Request: fold
Amino acid sequence: MSEVTVVDHPVVKRYLTILRDKTAETAPFRRAMGTIGTILAYHALDHLPLEETQIETPIQPAKGYQPASEVVVIPILRAGLSLVDGIISFMPDAKVGHVGVYRDEETHEPVNYYHNLPNGIEEAYCLLVDPMLATGGSASHALNFLKESGAKNIRFVSLISAPEGVERLQDDHPDVPIITAAIDEKLNEQAFIVPGLGDAGDRYFGTL
Reply:
């Protein structure tokens, strides 16, 4: 079963309150998403492998560290883009790939409509990001795609998760840790997270 990290922090709770508030306008919503994205990145990168390096301080030589592998952030389009700025502000050298997934109206199965991954995905430390982990269908599909593309070290990062989505990923991908800011009550009949925050993509991009 995959490890689940719920980031329980006063600052996260404050910004989650802003994000959940239906009266929050686009600008404060985006700022809150960016701040939480940075905090989630801090936790998602806690096992990033390092290698030692030697530097010169103004006083004397000293031992330093640098990442031993590249970091690749892969948002699930389009809502996943809302977390990217916060993550790369914490890790500016990270590369960014993209995976677009839609649900087929007849089969109800997720289907890729777009993907663009950087070279070296096989050895990279990959963060697959989507602000809402609801049913887990799109996330599981995207994880399958990343593994088929050669990715081996993957973590899934979400803002708010439903118990159903967490269970789905733990069943389908027990090797992929989950980092989230909250696990909410349930999914409603429309597969929205309760209480959730509505459609994260529409609220972030101002397309309500």
